[in-house]
Structures are given as C-alpha cells and as structure tokens.
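User: Round two. Same drill as before: sequence, then structure, for each protein.

Assistant: Same drill it is. First protein:
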Amino acid sequence: MRALTWLRLAALSICVLVAPAAAAPPNVAARVMQLDRRTTWTEVSATPVGFKTHHPQGMVRIGPDTFVSSVEILTYTKRYPTPQGGFDRDQGAGRGHLFRIGPDGALLGDLVLGEGAIYHPGGLDFDGEFLWVAVAEYRPNSASIIYRVDPRSLRAVEVLRVADHIGAVAYDRERQALIGVNWGGRAFYRWPMRRGWPVAGARAKPIANRASYVDYQDCHFVGGRRMLCSGLASYPTPMAGFSFTLGGFELVDVDDFRPTWQAPVSLWTKAGRAMTQNPFFVEATPRGLRASFMPDDNRSTIFVYEAVLD
C-alpha cells in the first residue's frame, strides 16, 4: 500500500511539472505590445536562492519550479593582443549547469552540460515537453552543442552542433523549428525540426539582426510566429565619466527576424545591475504581465514584477 501511494504521488508530481499551462499563454505577445517607456512595474516578490548560482544565463518556469542555466567559471578567458585563429580571446575553463529550483529557492536538481571548452550555457526555452538549451565556448565565433532536456528526469540528449557561439535558443512550436541567437544576438539561425531532430540535410545560415540597442541574453517563443527576447547593453556617458546599463524586451518575428515591438525595462537591483541581465521569463496575467528575473551572480534572488496594462 505504501509503495502504491508513493507511485501515485510521483505520478501526480510529474503531471504538475509538464502541465500545458506552463507554456507561455497566447496573449503574451499582445500584452508585450502594450509596454512602453511609461510602463510601471511593481515588485510582488523577491525569493533568495539557497545555493551558489554562479553566473545565471536563462530561465523558464514549469509549474511551481524554475529552471535556470548557469556557467561556473573556473578560469576566466583572456583577450589576445591581436586575434589568433579568428578568436579574440582564449577558451578559459568552466562548467555548465542547468538548475531546477523549487518555489522556496531550494535546489532540486543540477544537470552538468557541455564538454571540454564548450561549457557556457545560454538562454533556454520550453516546448511544452522538453527544455532546449545551447552550450557554447565562452567566446564569439566559436562552437556550440544544443541539447534537449527532459525536465522530469534532467536527462539531456545532444541534438545539434553549430560552428558558432549560440547564446540563446527558442523553440517555434507552431512550425516545429529551433531558433538560435548568436553572441550578443547579432544574428539568428533557424533549424527545421522533425520529431525533435533537425531535418536531414537542412543547414541554417546566419541572418543579421536588424535591431541593436540591446544584446539578447534569453529568448522564449510566445506564439503567433513571434519570440520574446530580453537583454541589455552598456552606454558610456563621456561627460559624466561613467557608463549606464539599459535593459529591454523585444518581440521578434521568427519568419523574417524583424523586431515587431521594442520596450525598455527600467528596473535595476540595489547594486545597480539591470534586471534584464540574462535570465527572464514572462507570463500573462488577467490584467497585464508578470515578469521573473534573476540578475545577480552567486547569491541570486528571483525577482517577480507585475505590470498592469489597459
């Protein structure tokens, strides 16, 4: 009887984890298109994460849990005086992680991803069944491995290798295609998929990004042939003698990769770090949007903000 009860509880836990409601609602894009510089974001919670998170990169929420990719840096990369072999820096060393975090900030799972010099996970997405995450060398114009991960077991399957640094991925659930974004979001890739694998013989070519006021760090497919990307960029103020960092959201058409809506996110931590520094996840609410952020390294906090929109 005890064994049967345990199995029933385990089955219930799995059902909650992969519930269809975890996917982004179809009106997220419409809500985002109501954002502008005047939008007011109100903090509704701040949950300290109860373990060392290293340098977080991407985030999705599935049921009550949050999945976060992160890079643990063991040796920092060093820039070359002049480029060598097409690279501006060496490989450095590190370890890639995919964390499963409970609603109280506790660590529920830790999957190590990558191999050798490929140790830097980027932004990730959830297709309703699997997580998708790219792990790359920690330098531009390098190499990446894209994994499909079962969120229930945290088992990863290598799906694709790319001769570029892929810093974020999004899964087009309407047309069954994987979208890749390279270093800084300067170019896009699109790989047609069939049953979770790239279509045989299909080779994606980089498509230039037409927007440049922020560098994309994390992206999620939100329906209607669009993905939502978040990122940031630093801008110098020569007269004041310092730089400031601005973050923002961009809706991108996944067919032609043109930005369809851009909005700054004027939120910073107490330490001055842009809230859109890497991981984010956006959900629609009856009255607007709820956005989750995790901008700080090592001693991280999951911040949740809401915006009430007309």
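Second protein:
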Amino acid sequence: MFKRSVFAAIMLLATLSVAGQNKLVRFEELRALQTTAAKPIVVLIMTDWCKYCHAMQNTMLKNSRVSALLKNSFHTVFLDAEEKKDILFAGRTFKYKSGINELARQLATKAGKLSYPTLCILDANNEIIYQHDGYLSPQAMLYTLNKITEKK
C-alpha cells in the first residue's frame, strides 16, 4: 500500500511539473498558432553534439523564470540544425543539404557565419528581430526576452 501511495505521489508531481513547462511547438504548427494567438517566436538552433546547446535548452525548459516568460509571451521551437526531414515553414519547404537543414542555415547565419547554439527570435510576421550566436546564461536570456516583450 505504501509503495502505491509513493508511486501515485511521484506520478502526480511529474504531471504537475510537465504541465508547468513551456510548450514546445513544431514549425508546421506555427501558422495555426499565430492566427489564434500572435506572439514572437523563439527558435533555439542546436545540434545533438553541442554541449552549450543542451545547456541553453535546459535553461529554457527548467529555469522557472525563463520558462514562465517563454510560456506566456512566446511560441518556442527547438530546431536541430542537422534535421534531415523537410520542414514546412512560412509557406516554404526547407530541405536538408550539405549536412544542415536550410532553415537552420537561414536562421542561424550571422555575419556570414553559422554557429551553435543560436537563439533567433522572429516577430509575428516571421521576420528576424533578434539573433544571438553562442551560449546565453539564464540571466542574459531573461534580460533579452524581457526586452523583446517590452517592444511589443
């Protein structure tokens, strides 16, 4: 009986934890979401092998202040730059070419250079309004996201 109670409590806590997290979306879902609730789009362009990418991903998912701001004021997408599947976004199909998805190349290229992680923020019209290549600390990410929401 005790084991069942402990298991039930753990499952309840896990459910509450997941319910409070930022909802990640896919690029294909953005069009419908923007017609319902137009928000800036935060895109983290990353790779599986990049440790700084994973650190930023953890910040976005687990830092309560960053996660809450993302959940309330943005649509959030994690883009694996090495995604081999075609991605439909903004009425265009982006393909995998030369080891990188075309969409990752377009969103993460800054000053002719591509690096990971790159944080890219798009407005409701899918125009880039902010790009940062490299790791952002939780405090810097919070500051940046707050500045973007102040401009709306």
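The first strand starts at residue 41 and ends at 46.

User: Perfect.
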